[in-house]
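Lab notebook, design round three. We kept the backbone fixed and only want residue identities now. Task for the bench partner: fill in a sequence for the structure below.
Input structure tokens:
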């Protein structure tokens, strides 16, 4: 009975969300009488009915130990809203003939477990079209474009690996750092500029722009346009708008439900406070990037010491925390992740992180931000080695004596200042 009531509650949450959107859209008519059912929009009614079902579907997939937790129930509701927000942007603006790079996942659209250092953007393309991408390259170590056929939110299944990955850092730039590249099935005859082949199956391109030093590195500026049709966009047809709304509920459900039981699967497979390889080659993972992960579980009096020998050569590496439903733990307002430019490496070449509820006053603290369980995930990108870090559970009171003697002491005031600086730098990166 309790599980059934929770499913009904989540369905109600989805209804509230759609009612809120409806109320906002028609605020200008607030003085008018509410429309009767016969006067409403059939496509909208269908969408709201299907959205209720998608909420129940996601909750049914949620592990039972979490489904019965009142806190997680509300976090699952938030995950549904995040999925709704993310996919609504696509439904409104995605257009292969008049493309624009839209935000795909980030600290607000916290689905599919975004990396704290990465800005993700996506544009829908029309297969076979001819496109121009231009802008200012910036100075990030990783700035790449992946080509994809179908994405998880469309199919609800693994999308398969990228059809191609192209590197903006290999393009020519002018004296002002501007690039200009064509993306088409074949190189235009006589064209001598930068060109990338567009796979015939590509209907979406996805940008990863990964920052290492948030204070010094500059994010790119980028635009995309289709060249082989007129630039002006005609009024969308009623059929096109209806089709977008008809597809929205399913994509919201696919997005919200896809990873909701992922941490529980790690627990079930015995990877609690233990890490393993995570193969993302068929889940849109970045080519050349090695992933590891495992579930974590700690009590308030405990800590985890996570250790790894840092590779001699590495373009990028980082570690992050997630919650039990695989949302990345808030990295704007807490030190829930660190990368190779932010973390302290000890004299023996080993990086040591401490996961604990209370600040152990060491540089490489990973703050679970109120969660006692979730996942640890790390990345080694274009590195000479790809070690799986070890994890030790220890008493929180023993942490300092288990770390090198020269580990600095971070005072509460220093930590407060560091988090404020982190928060400011994160906000100064693009979300849109």
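Proposed sequence:
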């Amino acid at each position: 009975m309790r599980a059934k009531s929770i499913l009904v509650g989540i369905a109600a949450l989805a209804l509230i969300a759609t009612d809120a959107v409806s109320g906002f859209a028609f605020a200008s008519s607030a003085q008018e009488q509410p429309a009767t059912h016969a006067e409403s929009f059939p496509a909208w009614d269908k969408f709201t009915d299907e959205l209720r079902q998608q909420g129940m579907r996601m909750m049914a997939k949620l592990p039972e130990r979490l489904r019965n937790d009142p806190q997680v129930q509300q976090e699952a509701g938030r995950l549904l809203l995040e999925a709704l927000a993310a996919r609504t942007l696509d439904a409104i603006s995605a257009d292969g003939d008049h493309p624009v790079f839209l935000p795909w996942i980030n600290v607000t659209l916290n689905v599919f477990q975004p990396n704290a250092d990465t800005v993700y953007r996506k544009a829908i393309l029309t297969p076979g079209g001819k496109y121009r991408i231009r802008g200012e390259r910036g100075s990030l170590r990783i700035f790449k474009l992946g080509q994809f056929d179908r994405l998880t939110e469309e199919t609800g299944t693994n999308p398969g690996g990228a059809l191609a990955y192209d590197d903006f850092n290999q393009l020519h730039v002018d004296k002002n750092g501007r690039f200009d590249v064509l993306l088409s099935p074949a190189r235009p005859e006589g064209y001598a500029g930068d060109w990338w082949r567009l796979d015939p199956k590509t209907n979406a391109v996805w940008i990863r722009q990964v920052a290492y030093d948030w204070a010094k590195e500059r994010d790119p500026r980028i635009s995309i346009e289709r060249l082989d049709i007129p630039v002006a966009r005609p009024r969308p047809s009623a059929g096109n708008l209806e089709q977008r709304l008809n597809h929205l509920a399913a994509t919201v459900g696919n997005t919200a439900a896809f990873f909701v039981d992922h941490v529980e699967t790690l627990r079930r497979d015995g990877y609690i406070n233990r890490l393993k390889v995570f193969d993302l080659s068929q889940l849109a993972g970045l080519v050349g990037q090695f992933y590891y992960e495992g579930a974590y579980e700690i009590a308030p009096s405990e800590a985890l010491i996570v250790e790894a020998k840092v590779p001699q050569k590495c373009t990028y590496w980082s570690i992050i925390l997630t919650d039990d439903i695989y949302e990345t733990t808030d990295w704007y307002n807490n030190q829930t992740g660190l990368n190779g430019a932010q973390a302290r490496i000890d004299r023996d070449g080993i990086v040591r992180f401490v996961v604990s509820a209370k600040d152990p006053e060491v540089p490489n603290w990973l703050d679970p931000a109120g969660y006692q369980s979730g996942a640890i995930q790390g990345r080694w990108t274009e590195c000479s080695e790809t070690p799986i870090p070890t994890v030790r559970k220890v008493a929180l009171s023993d942490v300092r004596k288990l770390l090198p003697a020269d580990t600095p002491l971070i005072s509460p005031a220093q930590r407060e200042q560091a988090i404020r600086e982190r928060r400011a730098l994160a906000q100064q990166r693009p979300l849109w």
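Keep this in mind before ordering anything: The chain has nine helices and 18 strands.
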